[in-house]
Description:
This protein is α+β, with helices and mostly antiparallel strands and about 160 residues long. It is about 20% helix and about 35% strand. The protein has a 6-stranded antiparallel beta sheet with strand order 1-2-4-5-6-3, with helices on one face. The chain is globular, with a radius of gyration of 15 Å. The model has no long low-confidence stretch (mean pLDDT about 90).
Amino acid sequence: MTDNTAPITLPVGVEQIQQLLPHRYPFLLVDRVIEFVPDKSVVTIKNVTINEPFFNGHFPGHPVMPGVLIVEAMAQSAGLLTQLSARSKGGSPSSLFYLAKVDNARFNAPVIPGDQLRMEVRLKRLLRNMGLFEARTLVDGKEVASCELMCAARSEK
């Protein structure tokens, strides 16, 4: 169980990330949070290894991380920003946010085994139950992907 009164200390490891996000292997695509400014920005890390299950078929003999999974890693980072921001105020993690829209996705270079993804996500605005985020992913200081993400809080039924 997460202690909501404890201050957030960096780096936030995978055990804490699993308390904040519902994703699990093979779909948890964030390994660590290394920078965090409540309600503003987060920087996360994903270590890409040849053991990732998608490399078996994408592509045999020339492994490339699917772009949609890079976008998903950025969306999970945005989710961590909302969850950590709620926790930093002493509250419990907020409602789950679902990816609702991706705009202006760009892929500038392939991501391959051995790369370390650095996802930088900034909250542009929060309107009611929707957040608009600006995200980019870098490898060795070079931008490999970027997009705008809209996430919506899960409606309670």
